[in-house]
Amino acid sequence: MNPLDKVEGRAIPLGLKNVDTDVIIPAHWLKTVSREGMGGGAFESLRADPDNLFDRPEYQGAPILIAGDNFGCGSSREHAAWALGDLGIRVVIAPSYSDIFSGNAVKNGILPVVLPQAAIDRLIEVAKTDPIHVDLEHQTVTTQFQDRFTFEIDPFRKMCLLEGLDEISLTEKSDAAIAAYEQKLDAERPWMRPAAA
Amino acid sequence: MNRPRTLYEKIWDAHVIERRPDGTCLIFIDRHLVHEVTSPQAFAGLRASGRAVRRPDLTLAVPDHNVPTTPRKDANGNRLPIVDPESAAQLAALEKNAPEYGIRYIDAVAAEQGIVHVVGPEQGFSLPGTTIVCGDSHTACHGGIGALAFGIGTSEVEHVLATQTLLLQPAKTMEVRVDGEVGPGVSAKDIILHITGTIGAAGGTGHVIEYTGSAIRALSIEGRLTVSNMAIEGGARAGLIAPDDVTFAYLKGRPYAPKGADWDAAVDYWRSLATDPGATYDKSVVINAADIAPSVTWGTSPEDVVPITGVVPDPASFADPSKQAAAAKSLAYMGLEPGTRMQDVAVENIFIGSCTNSRIEDMRAAAAVIKGRHKADTVKWAIVVPGSGLVKRQAEAEGLDRIFIEAGLEWREPGCSACLAMNPDKVPPGERCASTSNRNFVGRQGPGSRTHLVSPAMAAAAAVTGRLTDVRELMR
Question: ipTM for the complex?
Answer without folding.
Answer: 0.95
